[in-house]
UniProtKB/TrEMBL annotation:
UniProt cross-references to PANTHER family, sorted A to Z: SWAP-70 RECOMBINASE (PTHR14383), SWITCH-ASSOCIATED PROTEIN 70 (PTHR14383:SF6)
Organism of derivation: Hypocryptadius cinnamomeus
Physiological role: Phosphatidylinositol 3,4,5-trisphosphate-dependent guanine nucleotide exchange factor (GEF) which, independently of RAS, transduces signals from tyrosine kinase receptors to RAC. It also mediates signaling of membrane ruffling. Regulates the actin cytoskeleton as an effector or adapter protein in response to agonist stimulated phosphatidylinositol (3,4)-bisphosphate production and cell protrusion.
Coiled coil segments of this chain: 309-530
Occurrences of domain PH (ranges): 203-299
Subcellular location: Cell membrane; Cell projection, Lamellipodium; Cytoplasm; Nucleus
Molecular function, one GO term: DNA binding
Quaternary structure (record): The SWAP complex consists of NPM1, NCL, PARP1 and SWAP70.
Keywords, sorted A to Z: Cell membrane, Cell projection, Coiled coil, Cytoplasm, DNA-binding, Membrane, Nucleus, Phosphoprotein
InterPro entries in UniProt: EF-hand_SWAP70_N, PH-like_dom_sf, PH_domain, PH_SWAP70
One cellular-component annotation, GO: lamellipodium
The organism's place on the tree of life at top rank: Eukaryota
Alphabetical list of SMART domains matching this protein: PH
Protein's gene: Swap70
Protein name: Switch-associated protein 70
Length: 579
């Protein structure tokens, strides 16, 4: 009842401030008693003001009478819209702006009632910027338009610089000016205001047309349903003139979805203690929306909570009160800090004076100290000169020692460099000896070859001696043969040298071929193992010739015996040609 009394007082306050209650107090009291269904007691009013002709502005005042004889007797069984319209009629003519507005008088009345719902609980009544933003957002959403946050922020900044909020008449002018509903026609704005009015003032949580099944005749009729926090009312049409009944809701009610039947779709069931109601929505979306809305309402009834918009308003007020309390606490702390700062300033001033006195004493003591310091400085100057001379001598000695040390270190670096050069010379000598040994072995091998060639030449020489013992005729022939053999020997020697070069090249090729054969043998072995593993019994042909190889003093020959015979035949053919 306290919340109801506060809501009533806001509307009465507008009428109270608009009327000359010295002449119209009795009329206002009579009208209030009529619309609030409170018994009117004119005698009590006369008794209240009998000793004072100044009326409400006197010590007696009108508000004590209003609280004691009217508001305390209100039971809640009255029409809120009719009550608000009576208060609006008394105050609108005096306060409503004369300039043309984009909203009708009926829309202005609804905005005025919404203002009383959202305004702060202090007089004169104002609506703060946060609630203005909330209301404008609701109207903009109802119009289906986009909210212009940046535009409102500019308006809010301009508003905060001049005042705390707006009065009811300034709010009506703001909405009626179309500043936040540009591009919308009067009908769209009116419908949006009416939708917000139904939600915030009439507690309409949801409304719309649906089909309802009768309890007696079992026929389906279209009805306009209106969901409120504790009841669902249904009417013939949306003008709410012909009411057909109520579905009273409590914590024991429940709602269930039903399958389609009897040609009706989107069915759901509302179960109450005494009755059950079958309802058909226009589509699945509407069906789900109504089920969720009714379930939410029943949940609020079970929890004993207020409707969502009232609970949200209370939370916003509590948040503002909390912020205000924090701001007041911050201001109090700032004042305490300021007072403490002033005290500190006084303390600092006293300390400054003490410091000035101490500074004067310190200056006197400093003067005496300076005199003593001058005397000590003269005494120490002599000692400093002597110390300077001693230090200069020591620096000269240190410089001399440093020069000697630098020379010693230079000598050490030179010795280290010589040691490195000796090491390199030893390495070079060692490498030269190794090269000499290699050359010596090569010379020994060449001597052996030369010995073999010499033995062959001696053999040829012996054959020549034998031919000398032949007849003169044969001698001449042999001489010719000898000349030819010498020429052949020269050719053979050249061919031998050529063969030697070819043998060396063949030996190098042999080494390369040997490496390639080893690599091929390894690859062949690996391949042979894989083939034997995967394919079965396969015999591979081993690389290399089946003929025996010739062996020389330096290893395997670079040619086979057949190649050697072919070359001998070639030499013989050349010899026969030359003879």
């Amino acid at each position: 009842m306290v919340g109801l009394k506060e809501e009533l007082l806001k509307s009465i306050w507008h009428a109270f401030t608009a009327l000359d209650l010295d002449r119209s107090g009795k009329v206002l009291s009579h009208n209030l008693c009529t619309v609030l269904n409170v018994p009117h007691d004119p005698v009590a009013l006369e008794e209240h003001f009998r000793d004072d002709d100044e009326g409400p502005v006197s010590n007696q005042g009108y508000m004590p009478y209003l609280n004691k004889f009217i508001l305390e007797k209100v039971q809640g069984n009255f029409d809120k819209v009719e009550f608000n319209r009576m208060c609006w009629t008394l105050c609108a003519k005096k306060n409503l702006s004369k300039s043309p507005l984009l909203i009708s008088d009926e829309d202005a009345f609804k905005v005025w009632v919404i203002f009383n719902f959202l305004s702060e609980d202090k007089y004169p009544l104002i609506i703060v910027p946060e609630e203005i933003e909330y209301l404008l957002k609701k109207i903009t959403e109802a119009m289906g338009a986009g909210w212009q946050q940046e535009q409102f922020d500019h308006y809010k900044i301009a508003l905060n610089t001049s005042r705390e909020g707006l009065s009811a008449w300034e709010l009506i002018d703001l909405i009626g000016s179309g500043q936040f509903s540009k591009g919308m026609d009067r009908q769209t704005v009116s419908m949006a205001i009416n939708e917000v009015f139904n939600e915030l003032i009439l507690d309409v949580l949801k409304q719309g047309y649906m089909l309802k099944k009768g309890h007696k005749r079992k026929n389906w009729m279209e009805r306009w349903f209106v969901l409120k926090p504790n009841v669902i009312s249904y009417y013939v049409s949306e003008d709410l003139k012909d009411k057909k009944g109520d579905i009273v809701l409590d914590g024991n009610c429940c709602v269930e979805a039903l399958p389609d039947k009897d040609g009706k779709k989107c069915l759901f069931l509302i179960k109450c203690l005494d009755k059950t109601f079958e309802i058909s929505a226009s589509d699945k979306k509407k069906k789900q929306e109504w089920i969720q809305a009714i379930q939410s309402t029943v949940s609020l009834l079970r929890a004993g909570s207020a409707p969502p918009h009232k609970e949200a308003r209370q939370k916003r007020k509590e948040l503002r009160q909390k912020l205000l309390a924090e701001q007041e606490e911050l201001e109090r702390q700032m004042k305490e800090l300021q007072a403490a700062n002033e005290n500190k300033q006084k303390e600092l001033e006293a300390v400054r004076k003490q410091l000035e006195a101490a500074a004067a004493r310190a200056a006197e003591e400093e003067k005496k100290r300076l005199q003593t310091q001058v005397e000590l400085q003269d005494r120490f100057s002599l000692e400093l000169e002597r110390e300077k001379m001693v230090r200069q001598k020591m620096e000269e000695q240190v410089a001399q020692k440093s020069s000697e040390l630098e020379q010693y270190l230079q000598r050490v670096r030179e010795l280290e460099e010589m040691y490195k050069q000796l090491q390199e010379a030893l390495e070079d000598e060692k490498q030269a000896r190794q090269d000499e040994e290699t050359v010596r072995k090569l010379q020994a091998r060449l001597l052996e070859e030369e010995t073999a060639k010499r033995a062959e030449l001696e053999k040829w020489h012996l054959q020549q001696q034998q031919t000398i013992q032949m007849t003169e005729a044969e001698k001449q022939e042999l001489e010719n043969q000898r000349m030819m053999k010498e020429q052949a020997l020269q050719v053979a020697m050249e061919q031998l040298k050529q063969l030697e070069l070819e043998r060396k090249e063949a030996l190098e090729q042999y080494e390369e071929v040997k490496k390639k054969l080893e690599t091929a043998a390894n690859n062949t072995k690996s391949w042979k193992d894989k083939v034997a593993h995967h394919e079965g019994l396969i015999r591979l042909i081993e690389p290399g010739s089946k003929n025996p190889h010739l062996i020389t003093n330096w290893g395997p020959a670079a040619f086979t015996e057949a190649e050697l015979e072919q070359r001998q035949r070639s030499w013989k053919g050349k010899k026969a040609t030359s003879e």
